Amino acid sequence: MFTKAAALTFVSALVGQALGHGLVSSPPIRQPGDAFKANCGEQMFYNVESDPAGNIQQLNQLKATSFSASSCNLNLCKGLQVSTAITIAYMHI
Question: Which residues form the signal peptide (predicted)?
Answer without folding.
Answer: 1-20
